[in-house]
Amino acid sequence: MTQSRQLAAIMFTDIVGYTALMGKDEQKAFELLKKNRAVQRPLIEKFNGRWLKEIGDGVLASFSTVTDAVYCAKEIQETCQMESDLNLRIGIHQGEVVFEGDDVFGDGVNIASRIESLAVGPCVLISKAVRDQIKNNADFQISSLGNYEFKNVEDPMEIFVLSNPGTEASKLELNEFRRKPKRSNRRRVAIISVAVIATLITIFLTKNIFLNAENSTTPKSLAILPFDNLQGDSSLLYLSNGIPENLINRLSSFEDIRVFARSATFNLADSLRSISSLKRLLDTDLILSGQLVKTQGASYINCQLVDASNQNQIWGRKFEMSDNDISLIEDSIVRALMNPLKIVSDVSADDQNKKVAPEAYEHYLKGRYLSYGSTPEESDNALAHFREAIQIEPAYAKAYAAISNEKVIQSLFSTASKNEIVNEARLAIEAAKALDPDLAEIYTSEGALKFYIDWNWQGAVDSYNKALTLDPGNATIYIRYSATLAAVGRYEQALKLADKAVSLDPISISSLHNLGWVNLLANNFEQSADAFGKALELHPNWVWGYIKQAYAYIFLQEYDKALQNAEKAQLLFKDGWGSELLQITLIFIYTKCNQPEKADDVTKRFLKYVSEGSLEDPWDLSYLYYLRGDYQKAIEWEQKVIDEKSLMAYHLNLPLFYDKLFFESPEHQQILKQLVYTN
């Protein structure tokens, strides 16, 4: 799709109090949406604007000139004054943005959104970039609200309010406001600072907008556990993970609460799921748990919210799953949690699950449950559920995105042919983009495909950057992004991203494995061993943890520790997913630790394994020949790695695992020149 970079005025609007109205009177809320469209669309067109899309109850529009954007906002507010029930918040910023089809993204869009979110009631807020271009226009009366710090924006920004007669902001006691000290809050951009609130409160109390003093503090953290399936009912298994996972995704959209990623809590051993353990491991403030119960033909969810500091229950409620629409149950839980979590945001992230048939959503949840499995069969079953969801709901973007992600997982374990992986994954990505281009999962999968399949690391970086723009709190994006950068030698950037992933997801295998791996490639061997060690403390049966910590021990010349790890890995070894690569790594460890007999034993097992099946990836055999000192055969198989577009090709570009003489040889360097991402 063609992209164009332009300077544009971006306008964000949303309806004050819409979420609360949706909870009380759904029909009235839908009627208000229609009225909102009827007011805004013709005015945006009148002032030469471009209606881009609706985001929940919000509208995103762009204008070629700042003047048109502000005139449009002014007239929208004047029109709303004549409507008794339509109150809009509007934010405008001018900046460089990227247009792609009917969508727009970039810092200019993000800043406009954050400016709009500052408003606690109906008004027009603008950036200094906008104000500077209209300050001499007598049609606009503008007042400064002071400087504010925004997330991912380096310097504080001065924000202004349009205070023309007839607007709500015209009632501000601005002289009194100017005498008050101006404060900025780095952690909280969803409300105006305490000084501004003091002057706005008289207006907004009349419209029943209540502010909570705790919102000016750092948001509390929340850990959500998988729900207990107390009776072991197989029909409820997928819900034990599916519902809490979606609660994590939905509650993460609020700036009032910091929610830990799924991987931080879902894979913990039962012994580490106690309140005291979670407090120690995550330093979390709050813990949400639940139980699934079926009695006399009816199913229920019992939920509890606990203060981790004193283990007191703050809130609890029982929800009956009387119908099959799981998304409605999730809606009820989210609404019920708003008060105990002290969430005052008016708008939750648009949840596409509400737009699909309940049967399709059920298949999606079942697929998500299986997609975290550890066998090819579970992966295939996950795909079957995602495909069934699409059969029922052909426009289900999240199901297409899930298919692309699952094919990436299969590619990493070589459980499907490369052509099958590429074809279905790419089709799924393009389908998801066409249906909902704002899903971060699309670009996360796209980044992996560009790197592993296309050998295009810059394209992968671009995709990961877009994914982070859409979902900056997603640890998985940081993990895949940092691994890509480390594989092409950009260690400093990779380490920063790996550290960020751990800050979001401090105790999962995924984040700690990535931290250990990136440090290993960057020759930070002690830090690598420590990261794998921490992961193994939490996940003592993780075979790859022992293998990769052994790598670090080898480069630290602590061979006894490396051999101990190899023996632990041998005890945990199982044929199946990834076992071919696992055997090669054991051969590497025994070879480097000067244990030729053990290396030969694993080599025989590996060759027998290959002879009875098929070689999963030619890199494995190329590296075996390298370890055995047969460099001619190693180069021959390296060329097969290139010719067959091996998913493991990036290993050829990791100098840590080759001796200098071989790595810098003309033959190996000629192989590397055929990899796009080495340029």
Using only C-alpha atoms, the radius of gyration works out to 28 Å
The CATH topology of one domain turns out to be Alpha-Beta Plaits
> In one word, what is the shape?
globular
Largest sheet: 8 strands, mixed
The CATH architecture term of one domain is 2-Layer Sandwich
The overall average pLDDT, rounded, is: 81
- Which structural class fits the helix and strand makeup? alpha/beta
Name of the CATH class of one domain: Alpha Beta
Give the number of DSSP strands. 14
If helices are DSSP runs of H or I spanning 4 or more residues, what is the number of helices?
29
Low-pLDDT sequence parts: 170-216, 346-353
Q: What is the name of the CATH superfamily of one domain?
A: Nucleotide cyclase, GGDEF domain
Determine the N-to-C terminus distance. Answer: 25 Å
The share of residues in extended strands comes to 5-15%
Helix content: 40-55%
Note the main attributes of this structure.
679 residues; alpha/beta; six-stranded mixed sheet; 53% helix; Alpha-Beta Plaits; eight-stranded mixed sheet; 29 helices
What does this molecule look like?
- The structure is a single chain.
- The chain has 679 residues and is α/β, with parallel strands linked by helices.
- Among the domains are: 3-216, Nucleotide cyclase, GGDEF domain (Alpha-Beta Plaits); 220-348, Rossmann fold, CATH 3.40.50.11830.
- The protein is 53% helix and 14% strand.
- The strands form 2 sheets. Strands 1, 2, 3, 4, 5, 6, 7 and 8 form an 8-stranded mixed beta sheet that branches.
- It is globular, with a radius of gyration of 28 Å.
- The two termini are 25 Å apart.
- Residues 170-216 and 346-353 have low confidence and may be disordered.
